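G., before I forget:
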Amino acid sequence: MRLSLDEREAEFIAEQLVTERGITALPICPFTIAKDKGIEVQPRQSDRPGVSGFLMRVGDQFGICYATHIKNDGFIRFTVSHELGHYFLPGHCEHLFPKGVFLHESRSGYLSNDPRERQADIFATTLLMPEALFVPTMRGAGSGFAAIEQLATNCRTSITATAIRYARFAEDPVAVIVSRGSTVDYCFISSPLEDIRGLRPLRKGALLPPNSATAIFNKVEANIAGGLQDGGYSQLDNWFDGAPNHIEMTEDVVGLGTYGRTLTVLCSDQGLPDDDNDSDDD
Amino acid sequence: MPEEFPEILRKARENRKLSQGDVAERSGLQPSAISHFETGKRSPSFENLKRLADALAVSVDYLLGRTEEPKSSGPVVEQLFRDFSSMSSTDQESFTKFAAMLAEKNKAGKKG
C-alpha cells in the first residue's frame, strides 16, 4: 500500500504520539488521549448527512463530537481518532477554521477526497494500530479474514479499518474493497499486488465483477443492513485488469450495517508465481 | 496559516525577551521547530499552537492574528452564531450547548 508524503507524515506523527505516551499494549484508547489533552469528547445527535464527527474550537479550548447515528464501537473510536488527527497534524488549523469559523465537520472513513481528511484517516488508523504493536500481533493472528477479525478484537477497531491496516503490512496478495450496490467506493491493495506490473487498481465507481460473491450479496439490502457475512472464491483477474491468470483468492464479504456499504477482503496465502510477479511486457 | 503568524510569534517571543531556545524549553518543542515557525517554513498543529500560546502567555487567537489583545478569548459569541446560522434547529441546539461549555472552560483557563 503506497502512501503519499502527507499520508506518511500522518503515520509518523501518530506513531510518535504513541511512543511519547509510552503506550506498549493494544487496544489504544483515543478517549484517554483526548482527555489528557483537555479535549472534551461528547456524542451528538446531528442531521448532517454523511458527517461522522466534528471538531470545535472556542478560544484555546477544543471539543470533539461524534455522530450518534454511528452504532459501531470501532467506528466511533476511529471518528474520535480522526478528529484528534486534525488537532495533532500540522497545517490543519487554517484550513479547518478559517476566519470566523469555529466548527469543522468531518467525513471520516476513507470516503473523502480532501487530502486533509485522508491525512486524518491515516492518522486515526495508525494511532489505533501503530506498526510497532500491530505487526507483531498480526504475525500471531494467522492469515486471511479470520486474522483480520481477531485483530479487530485486539485493537477494538472496525473490521474495515483493521482490514486496511492488514493490507498495509501483508506480505501476501490482499485486496480490501468497500462497495455500494454494483460499484466500488474505494480499494486498498497489499504490496505484492502493487508490485504486479500492469495491474490496474480499482477506482471509485468501478463495477464489481457481476458473478462475484460481493455483487450477488449486494443485491439484497438486508444483507448489508443486518451485517451478514458470505464468502466464496474469486479469480484475481476477475477483479483487476492486468492481473495474472489463475490466481485464486478467497473472497470474504461483510455487510457494514448502518454504514450502508459492504466490505470485501480478497486474500491468498499462496504467493504469486515469480513469472507473473516479474513479467516483462515491454 | 495566516501570513502574519511567523511575525506575530517572533514579536510575542521578543516582547517577553525570550530566545527561541527559551520558548522551545517552555513549550516542549525543538528549537529548530520554533525557528521554522518564525521563518514560515513550517505550519504548527493545533497542539503546537496551544503549547506556544501557553509558553508565551497569549491566546491561540492572538497567535493566529484574530485579536490584538494577547490574552483575549476572541469575539466568540457572534462568530459562533454566524457559524451555526446554516444549521438545522436540532444541530443548533446541540452545538450551542457544547460551545457554551467550551467557552466557559476557555474563560476559566484565562483566569487561571
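Residues 89-111 of chain B form the longest helix (23 residues). Chain B touches chain A at residues 1-2, 42-50, 53, 59-61, 64, 66, 73-74, 76, 79-80, 82-84, 88, 90-91, 94-95, 98-99, 101-103, 105-107, 109-110 (CB under 8 Å).

More on Monday.
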